């Protein structure tokens, strides 16, 4: 009996410790918390645009840290909004998450990263966590067992994340993480992350998967049902021009073009070989790279906004 009583404090401490970890990860401090906050802020900012026609550009961080919505807006003459989130959400979670922001008259441009396109099930590393964090557990048809396991892990912050947060508080007086920087009123980031490791050229090892084709087809129908128009685009990447990569991108482009108009450079396939344009990943661009990408995208969008 005595031994059992000694276990009581530990049993009571366990859910408390989990709740503290969950609060860090989801409410404030952890990476998912910043993504949740950014997502909710973007939905609110997009809803405040009072216009019968808007261009809404969606995708992962390869949209968020790649385009300059304000620049594109100046060139097109209609409101443009950056609704880029995170590629690790997967298409199963990303697409239904952005659908509420779309309304009649919108021109929606979907620019998914290649890892999203090649996914066989449409789920990414943080699919479960994002659904839980935004109050929609199971979003994206996540299997119940996986959802339960991933939800449990939300209460267990990584030592690396806690250490970084502690260092940020001591050295900067605030927490700093991906997506924690303020947004412009058009959803653009205000910070550029720099790469510290050596560059290597990204290869695209698989073309778009049947699941992704089906998901984008379904999304196209949902967008049209709202009275909006869907356009697609290939991502700009710092990548290899090896035969396999080129072939897989060509296959992907052909499949996407069968769904909706596809905006891309047919000669380069949007593969860039100048790493100086890129920030910290093979998708994220420095300000000068964003300017070039936005100029090109604005030109490609011109026929659809007249």
List the main descriptive attributes of the protein structure presented here.
globular; 5-stranded parallel beta sheet; two-stranded parallel sheet; 12 helices; 49% helix; Rossmann fold; alpha/beta
Can you walk through the features of this model?
- The model has no long low-confidence stretch (mean pLDDT 89).
- This protein has a single domain (14-49, 58-305), classed as 3-Layer(aba) Sandwich (Rossmann fold).
- Helices cover 49% and strands 8% of the residues.
- It has a 5-stranded parallel sheet, sandwiched between helices. Strands 5-7 form a two-stranded parallel ribbon.
- The chain has helices at residues 2-27, 31-47, 61-64, 69-76, 91-98, 114-118, 127-133, 144-153, 159-172, 210-225, 243-257, 287-305, and strands at 55-59, 80-84, 107-111, 229-233, 237-238, 262-263, 271-272.
- Helix 1 packs across helix 2, helix 4 (69-76) runs parallel beside helix 12 and helix 5 (91-98) packs parallel to helix 10 (210-225).
- It contains 12 helices and 7 strands.
- By secondary structure, it is α/β, with parallel strands linked by helices.
Could you give a short account of the major beta sheet? 5 strands, parallel
CATH-level-2 architecture: 3-Layer(aba) Sandwich
For the largest sheet, list the strands in their spatial order: 2-1-3-4-6
Query: SSE order in H/E notation?
Result: HHEHHEHEHHHHHEEHEEH
CATH topology title: Rossmann fold
Share in helix: 40-55%
What would CATH call the class?
Alpha Beta
Number of strands: 7
Figure out the total of helices: 12
Q: Using the CA coordinates, give the radius of gyration.
A: 21 Å
Whole-number total of structural domains: 1
What shape does the CA trace take? globular
Question: Could you name the ranges where pLDDT drops below 50 across 5 or more consecutive residues?
Answer: none
Structural class of the helix and strand makeup? Answer: alpha/beta
Q: Report the β-strand fraction as a percent range.
A: 5-15%
Mean pLDDT: 89
Distance between the termini: 80 Å
């Amino acid at each position: 009996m005595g031994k059992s009583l000694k276990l009581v404090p530990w049993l009571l401490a366990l859910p408390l410790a989990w709740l503290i970890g969950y609060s860090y990860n989801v409410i404030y401090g952890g990476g998912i918390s910043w993504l949740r906050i950014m997502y909710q802020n973007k939905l609110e900012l997009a809803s405040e645009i009072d216009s019968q026609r808007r261009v809404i550009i969606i995708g992962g961080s390869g949209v968020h840290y790649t385009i300059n919505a304000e620049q594109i807006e100046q060139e097109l003459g209609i409101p443009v909004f950056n609704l880029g989130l995170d590629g690790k959400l997967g298409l199963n979670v990303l697409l239904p998450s952005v659908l509420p922001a779309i309304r009649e008259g919108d021109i929606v441009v979907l620019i998914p990263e290649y890892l999203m396109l090649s996914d066989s099930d449409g789920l990414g590393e943080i699919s479960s966590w994002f659904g839980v964090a935004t109050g929609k557990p199971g979003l994206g048809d996540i299997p119940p067992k996986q959802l339960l396991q991933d939800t449990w892990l939300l209460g267990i912050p990584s030592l690396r994340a806690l250490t970084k947060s502690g260092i940020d508080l001591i050295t900067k007086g605030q927490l700093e993480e991906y997506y924690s920087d303020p947004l412009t009123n058009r959803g653009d980031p205000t910070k550029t992350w720099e790469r510290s490791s050596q560059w290597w050229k990204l290869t695209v090892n698989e073309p778009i998967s049947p699941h992704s084709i089906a998901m984008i087809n379904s999304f196209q129908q949902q967008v049209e049902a709202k009275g909006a128009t869907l356009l697609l685009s290939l991502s700009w990447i710092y990548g290899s021009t090896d035969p396999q990569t080129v072939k897989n991108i060509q296959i992907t482009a052909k499949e996407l073009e069968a769904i909706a108009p596809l905006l891309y450079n047919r000669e380069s396939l949007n593969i860039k070989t100048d790493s100086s344009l890129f920030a910290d990943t093979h998708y994220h661009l420095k300000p000068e790279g964003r300017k070039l990408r936005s100029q090109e995208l604005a030109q490609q969008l011109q026929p659809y906004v007249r």
